Amino acid sequence: MRGVALAAGLLLATSLPLAAQKAPTVRLYVTLAGDSAPAGARAPVVRSENLLAGDSRWLAALRSGLPLRLHYRVEVWRSREGWFDIFTRQAEWDVLVRHEPLLDQFTMLTFAGARRQERRYATLDALGAALGFAYQINVQPADEGRYYYTASLQVSTLSDSDLDELERFLAGDLGRSQGGDNLGDALGRGATRFLLRLAGLPSLRLEARSESFAVR
């Protein structure tokens, strides 16, 4: 019996680390494009990692019909030794992810200014690979000096107004006003918000900073 108990204890001890490995840490990176190039105004490259694998609640939200919004921001900062650093410029874009239950596929919409791009993925692995795509952003500093980039990623479910805009966009009616809501629409939005509260999903914010570089 002692041998059986010892074997069970060893099995439990070895299974716990394996279970912990099923939820890798969600990370955000911002690096410099062309690391082997001479020092200069090198563009930032932003990439996230393990977004869906790191927290199964986001995947549960998608499968429950709650779209996810990923808001990216890159800022350019000028370093000043002995003084406060100076913010110079920034770039922002959004990625919207939703699950199509009838087709059992995922849709990813990228919004960058007035541009919108839609892609569809048949599997979760394909979606995860797309979410880990590296974005090279054209937001380099223009003046001489020493700089660095900061990046942030805010992950959240959509608000009521966001859901309204998404529905109009998918219906090809993005430019129309928000009037004309009926009782069914209001109940539908209320049910969605109720599901959101039940899900208990917090917003996720990630931040990263690049190495510094000189512009001459």
Quick structural summary:
This protein is 29% helix and 36% strand. It is an alpha+beta fold.
Q: What features would you describe in this structure?
A:
The protein has 216 residues and is α+β, with helices and mostly antiparallel strands. The strands form two sheets. Strands 3, 4, 5, 6, 8, 9 and 10 form a seven-stranded antiparallel beta sheet that branches. A hairpin with a 4-residue loop joins strand 4 and strand 5. The protein contains five helices and ten strands, in the order H-E-E-H-E-E-E-E-H-E-E-H-H-E-E. The termini are far apart. The radius of gyration is 22 Å and the shape is elongated.
Describe how the helices and strands are arranged:
Elements: H1 2-20, E1 27-32, E2 44-49, H2 56-63, E3 68-78, E4 86-100, E5 105-112, E6 115-121, H3 124-131, E7 135-136, E8 145-157, H4 160-170, H5 183-199, E9 204-209, E10 213-215
Antiparallel strand pairs: 1-2, 2-7, 3-4, 3-8, 4-5, 5-6, 8-9, 8-10
